[in-house]
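TA notes, week 10

Several of you asked for a full example with nothing omitted. So below is the full record: structure tokens for the whole chain, then the designed sequence directly under it. When grading your own attempts, check the secondary structure regions first.
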């Protein structure tokens, strides 16, 4: 494969037209057309720009197919790109953690207010309690979705890190290794704190076990503990996962990436089915219409999801 063929192949892989590639390089469309037809060759500056734009080495672009086996081909990450990606993920980690926190605490007012309505000293109509609770839930979920989307858009161009193999120079790899080593103290501290809070979250259930009226209130405290625990776990995991993606370790080794593609499809189907069950059970023709009880579907689904992922791993290992 010669240079002209590689430029065309990489351009199509990005889903760009010749006009779009020309705009990225600040040249005319005719110049790109001549490169791809072999009528002319890009100069040195444009070769460097192409390598940065397509995340490949200049050697990959310039050497013909006969010599490609002697070099690292495919996607290539520079130090600037690695630093940019890690900076974005570090800045996004707090937003993603807060969005997760909002998702978990969102049903607390709905559960709490609807329960307190049954208590004579709490003067609030049940419809009002449900309205306030649902409003809070919807607002929290909306803010969380916005935060998730904003963070995802910022790293959209680095989606390939989860799916494809890539190459790093030794100096870039050393930089990423040092970053990971420096982050481990923070990572372990947040992990321990998050896990401890999740374990302690069951205490309110045991404390109020003999008080029927307070069982739902205990669930509110449970969700509060879990939400704070999840905040620290996600805060720790977001940047750690970013480092693993760069170094292609943990869940992002070349072998694991293939498994993750299957898991992603199964996860999408799984949670769509769970959502459908929740909506039908709560708001369907024969639904109970009481979210303060049907929320348990999500808790059960979360536990079963872990079981499903373990089963997929076991089946994959068996096949291998």
């Amino acid at each position: 494969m010669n240079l002209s063929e590689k430029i065309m192949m990489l351009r199509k892989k990005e889903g760009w037209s010749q006009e779009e590639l020309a705009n990225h390089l600040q040249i005319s469309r005719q110049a790109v057309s001549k490169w791809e037809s072999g009528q002319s060759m890009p100069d040195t500056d444009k070769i460097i720009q192409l390598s940065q734009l397509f995340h490949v080495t200049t050697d990959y672009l310039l050497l013909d197919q006969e010599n490609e086996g002697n070099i690292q081909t495919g996607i290539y990450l520079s130090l600037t790109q690695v630093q940019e990606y890690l900076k974005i993920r570090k800045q996004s980690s707090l937003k993603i953690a807060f969005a997760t926190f909002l998702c978990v605490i969102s049903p607390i007012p709905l559960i709490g207010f609807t329960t307190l309505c049954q208590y004579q000293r709490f003067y609030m109509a049940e419809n009002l309690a449900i309205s306030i609770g649902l409003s809070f839930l919807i607002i929290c979920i909306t803010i969380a979705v916005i935060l998730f989307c904003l963070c995802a858009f910022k790293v959209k161009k680095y989606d390939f890190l989860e799916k494809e193999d890539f190459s790093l120079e030794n100096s870039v790899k050393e930089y990423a290794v040092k970053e990971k080593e420096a982050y481990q103290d923070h990572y372990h501290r947040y992990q321990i704190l998050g896990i401890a809070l999740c374990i302690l979250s069951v205490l309110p259930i045991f404390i109020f076990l003999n008080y029927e009226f307070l069982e739902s209130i205990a669930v509110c405290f449970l969700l509060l503990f879990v939400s704070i625990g999840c905040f620290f776990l996600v805060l720790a995991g977001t940047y750690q996962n970013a480092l693993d993606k760069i170094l292609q370790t943990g869940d992002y080794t070349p072998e694991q990436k293939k498994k993750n593609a299957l898991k992603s499809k199964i996860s999408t189907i799984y949670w769509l089915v769970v959502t459908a069950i929740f909506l039908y059970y709560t708001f369907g023709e024969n639904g109970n219409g009481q979210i303060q009880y049907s929320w348990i579907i999500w808790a059960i689904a979360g536990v079963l999801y872990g079981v499903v992922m373990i089963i997929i791993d076991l089946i994959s290992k068996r096949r291998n």
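The longest strand covers residues 75-77. Use that as a sanity check on your answer.
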